[in-house]
Amino acid sequence: QSALAQPASVSGSPGQSITISCTGTSSDVGGYNYVSWYQQHPGKAPKLMIYDVSSRPSGVSSRFSGSKSGNTASLTISGLQAEDEADYYCSSFTSSITYVFGTGTKVTVL
Amino acid sequence: QLQLQESGPGLVKPSETLSLTCTVSGGSISSSTYHWGWIRQPPGKGLEWIGTIYYLGNTYYNPSLKSRLTISVDMSKNQFSLKVNSVTAADTSLYFCASYGGSFADYWGRGALVTVSS
Who contacts A44 (Cβ-Cβ below 8 Å, separation ≥6)? Predict the structure, then answer.
């Protein structure tokens, strides 16, 4: 299984909105509403930010939102803050009853 | 709230077997609510899903690693474990254990760094 494709880096100024894409195939992203997103700060374990495409776990800011269209899922961070600077990974359930992660995106707050 | 903690040797010789254990607290590993997984991250690189074990014991593995993997559960100790056979330098990674409350990893351990070197 191939890693889901994400842009290597995305940047934005404080207060702006940014969107990170996550492109897979009909066997993973496009076939199931089981896309999740994780935030990882340096030296830390990943943290679940979005699950099942667009649901937010308790305690995660409403500035984070998810969506999907066809084989591409997206994570949008609105009102960008300095603390949002981190690596972000998408993940999807697959038709083989496995999971696959995205290549990862480094978010920089200018 | 679940808590997970990885443990195991930090250094493994090439061609030997990497063994890690994840101890779960705050919940029962035999619960049907969760399944349990392993994810790794080579230094400076991205996340790679390794495999998952469901409460009935069914296991699913990353196809690229499948021939070398075993994931198992010890309900008496509330632990699950990972074994990777015939390791090479490419297996040097930070290994995370995680719980899957659905199709997502909601609780993670802090990670255990395993270096493969002679």
Answer: none
